[in-house]
Design a protein that fits this description.
- The protein is an alpha/beta fold and 232 residues long.
- Helix content is 39%, strand content 11%.
- The chain contains nine helices and seven strands.
- The chain has a three-stranded parallel beta sheet with strand order 3-2-4.
- The chain is globular.
């Protein structure tokens, strides 16, 4: 059923439209798109949820649900009570799942109860964007590992853990990238433990007379306002 849910999502077709109303933009796996260890597009498109043919993908999703005896599947999506991009993406996901016959509802709660529900495992499906201060794929994907404090799927996967250890000790960049792509496929496709929907596109508007401030790729960097002044 997890694999069916990700197969139903049209990331390539939906991203351009969704980007017009929400702060999301780029389809990608669990590794930051464009970074040295990120999967190439042709490799990513071989993984569940990223196939270029969405009709083929949804047909497979329906087949899997029928095989599992879950043709009338109903799920509740746990989501954070923040408009951008949580609620927008949540509404879109509900529509995407409806296209394979899944009836989904959205439970929107404040940040505290949202985290509490994840930490106690009180949810069916959850929208949980993972935000880091810097791009560091070897650390970033750690959230998907068994035993991680952020592994809210609470799954145990010895094969995944062994692959990650191998990835950490590989010194050849090309081989390390291949291992990371294998890791992504294991997490998002083979086991469908978790997946990425669409990566955020951070937008911070400010007046033209605000000088000395530069946008950073995360919420945590470049927050020192001592270099900022108003040219007015």
């Amino acid at each position: 059923m997890r694999r069916a849910l990700t197969l139903a999502i049209d990331r390539w077709g939906g991203a351009p439209a969704l980007a017009k109303i929400a702060i999301v933009k780029t389809p990608g796996g669990i590794v930051f798109p464009g970074s040295p260890l990120a999967a190439k597009k042709e490799d990513l498109q071989q993984m569940a949820g990223f196939w270029p043919d969405i009709e083929k993908s949804r047909a497979e999703a329906k087949r899997l649900l029928k095989e599992a005896g879950a043709e009338n599947l109903q799920v509740e999506l746990l989501n954070r009570d923040v408009d951008q991009p949580y609620k927008y993406v949540g509404i879109w996901l509900i529509d995407q799942w409806a296209k394979i016959g899944v009836k989904a509802t959205q439970k929107v709660v404040p940040t505290g109860p949202w985290f509490q529900s994840m930490r106690s495992g009180q949810f069916q499906v959850v929208h949980y964007p993972i935000c880091r201060s810097t791009v560091n794929p070897l650390l970033d994907v750690g959230a998907y590992l068994p035993g991680s404090d952020e592994n809210y799927g609470y799954y145990d996967d010895p094969e995944e853990a062994a692959l990650y250890e191998k990835l950490l000790h590989e010194s050849d960049p090309a081989k390390q990238r291949a291992l990371m792509t294998e890791f992504e496929k294991l997490v998002m496709d083979t086991q469908a433990h978790a997946t990425k929907v669409i990566w955020w596109n951070r937008i911070v508007p400010h007046r033209s007379y605000v000088k000395g401030w530069k946008i950073s790729p995360s919420h945590f960097l470049n927050q020192d306002l001592s270099t900022v002044w108003l040219d007015k």
